[in-house]
Amino acid sequence: MRRRSALILATACLAAPNIVKAQGASTIRLIVPFAPGGASDVTARIIQPGFSAALGRTVVIENRAGASGSIGSLVVVRALADGSVIGISNTSPHGIAPLASAHPAYDGDRDFTHIAMVADTPTVLLLPGNSPFADFQALLEAARTRPDGVTYGTTGVAGLQHLQGEMMAKVSGLRFVHVPYRGTGPGLQATMAGEVDCFLTPMAGTTGAIEAGQVRAVAISTPEPFAAAPGVPTYASLGMPQLTVSSWTGISGPRGMPAAVVIEMHAAIQRVLADPDTGRRLVAAGLYQLPHPVSTAEYQQIHADFARVWGPVVRDARITLD
Question: Which of 193, 201, 269, 297 has the lowest CB atom count within 10 Å?
Fold first, then answer.
C-alpha cells in the first residue's frame, strides 16, 4: 500500500507544475470542525499565516462545529477534490466518530486524502479555579462519597477524552457522569463557571486559562512530565497508565485529490513546521512538536491503524453518536 502510494506520488511529481498551476488560483477554505478556541482551532490559526505564504494563496479558516467534528469533516468529504477545500483532521472526527455511529456519514480513512500531520497534543484534566478538590485524588474521593458520582466535561460525545473518561471510571470502579460540549472553548467556559466538576480536554487552547488561575490542571496524559505543564502529574504516576494517550492533528482533504496538489500542500506544511517561531507557538499552546516530519503515507497509515486499535474500545464502552 505504501509502496504503491509512493510510486503514484513520484510519478505525479513529473506533472506537478501543470496540475498545480491549474489548481492554484483559488482561495483555499480550511475547515475547522470545532468551535473557536479549541485545540483544532488554535492549531489552524498558528499554521495559517505560514501555510498561506508557502502556498502563495489565501487560506481562510472556517469553523463548522458539531457532532464531535463530524459536521465539519463532512463538508470536506463532500467538497470538490481540487484542493480548494481542506480541513483540520484529528482523533475525534476522523478516528472515533466513524466508529461510534451505526450509520457513519464517512469512513475516517478511505473518504479522505490525509495530507500532513501537524502536531500532537496531550489530554489534560482540569478543575475549576475555585474547585473544592485540591488534586486528582480528592476528585476520586468525591466520586467515592457521592451517590451520583462526579461530572466530567469533554469536547463532545465519542471524542478521545470521552473514551478516557470511561476508562477512568472503569479503572477506578467509580461513577463519572459525562457532560459533552461543542469543543474546548465552550467546555472551558463551562468549567470556569463551575458547571462540571472537571474537564477532560486536549491541552491546546487551555494554557491561557491555566496560567490565569481560572482552571487548575491536575493530570496530564503524556508518558513523561510535560514541559508546557510544569508540576502537573501524569496519569501513569497517579496509577492510571491506561489514560496515557494523545490526540493527533493534521490537514486532510477530500478523497481523490490530485497527487501534485497533495505534494505541494505537504511541502508547504513542512516549511511551516520548520519555522522556529511556529514551533515555539505550538509548544506554548500545549502541542507536541513532531520529532521528525511525517510523510503523507505515514499520516494516512495513522488513520488506518486508529480504527483497528480503538474500535474494540468504542464497542466495549458502548459509546455511540446515534
Answer: 193
Structure confidence by residue, pLDDT tens digits, 25-45: 479 999 999 989 888 899 999
Q: Report the alpha-carbon distance of residue 40 to residue 72 in Å, rounded.
A: 12
Q: 164-201, pLDDT tens digit by residue?
A: 998 899 889 999 999 999 888 999 999 999 999 999 99
Query: For residue 7, is pLDDT > 80?
Result: no
Strand partners, 119: 249
| pLDDT beyond 70 at 13 | no
Tell me the whole-structure pTM to 2 decimals. 0.73
Continuous segment of H or E residues that includes residue 168: helix 160-172
Structural domains of the chain in order of their starting residue, each with its CATH number: 2-120+247-317 (3.40.190.150), 122-243 (3.40.190.10)
DSSP SS3 for 300:
helix
Residue 263 and residue 10: Cα distance in Å, rounded? 9
Record the cell numbers describing residue 220, joined without a space: 496530564
The 3-class SS string of 189-229 reads HHHHCCCCCEEEEECCCCHHHHHCCCEEEEEECCCCCCCCC
Least confidently predicted of 60-69, 97-106, 217-226, 313-322:
313-322
C-alpha cell at 12: 505525479
Q: Which residues, other chains included, contact 37 with Cβ-Cβ below 8 Å and sequence gap of 6+? A: 183, 184, 185, 186, 188, 205
Within 10 Å of residue 201's Cβ, how many Cβ atoms?
A: 31
Q: Burial of 189 by CB count in 10 Å (0-12 exposed, 13-18 middle, 19+ buried)?
A: middle
Q: What DSSP state is assigned to residue 36?
A: T
Residue 257's pLDDT is 97
In whole angstroms, give the CA distance from residue 99 to residue 165: 17
